[in-house]
Amino acid sequence: MGGATSQVTEVVEGYKAAVHAKDLDALIELYDDNVRVFDAWGVWCHEGAAAWRSAARQWFETLGIETVSVKFEDVQVIGRSSFAMLNATIT
Q1: What is the per-residue pLDDT across 12-71, written as a single tens digit (0 to 9) for each?
Q2: Which of 12, 36, 42, 89 has its Cβ near the most Cβ atoms within 10 Å?
Q3: The pTM of the whole model exceeds 0.70
Q4: Reduced to 3 DSSP states, what percent helix, strand and coil does the chain have, rounded to the nearest 5?
Q5: Domain 2-90 is in which class?
Q6: DSSP state of 24
Q7: 79 in helix, strand or coil?
Q8: What per-residue confidence (pLDDT) applies to 2?
Q9: Domain range annotation of the chain
Q10: Alpha carbon distance 86, 88 (integer Å)
Q11: What is the DSSP pairing of strand 84-90 with strand 72-79?
Q12: What is the pLDDT of residue 85?
């Protein structure tokens, strides 16, 4: 599973960088069109990339000049060489 873990690590680092830079396109590119994102802020569940894009845009806009450092905790990776799933608490 080393290849899958390595690729998931790249996604995690890409997520951190996209959020820190408030790069909406880079953030959304990390997700499948059929993504389901659970969130504890405002709306509990965002169904699909368009809904997640809208929520992330609002988030980035409310930050103004503030930047965000992302932390991943309780990371679990399940996968094979061609497929992997990441489960984590992201703050």
Answers
A1: 999 999 999 999 999 999 999 999 998 877 788 999 999 999 999 999 999 999 999 999
A2: 12
A3: yes
A4: 45, 25, 35
A5: alpha beta
A6: H
A7: strand
A8: 60
A9: 2-90
A10: 6
A11: antiparallel
A12: 81
Measured from the Cβ of residue 90, the count of other Cβ atoms closer than 10 Å reads 15
Q: Which of 81, 74, 89, 69 is nearest to 8 (CA)?
A: 81
Query: To which residue do tokens 């997640």 refer?
Result: 52
Q: Which amino acid is at 11?
A: V
- Taking CA atoms, 60 is separated from 56, 64, 68, 77, in Å, by 6, 7, 9, 27
Decide if 15 contacts 27 (C-beta within 8 A): yes
25, 74, 41, 37 alpha-carbon torsion, rounded to 10°: 50
Spatial separation of the C-alpha atoms in residues 85 and 91, rounded to whole Å: 19
* Owner of token pair 């499948």: 32
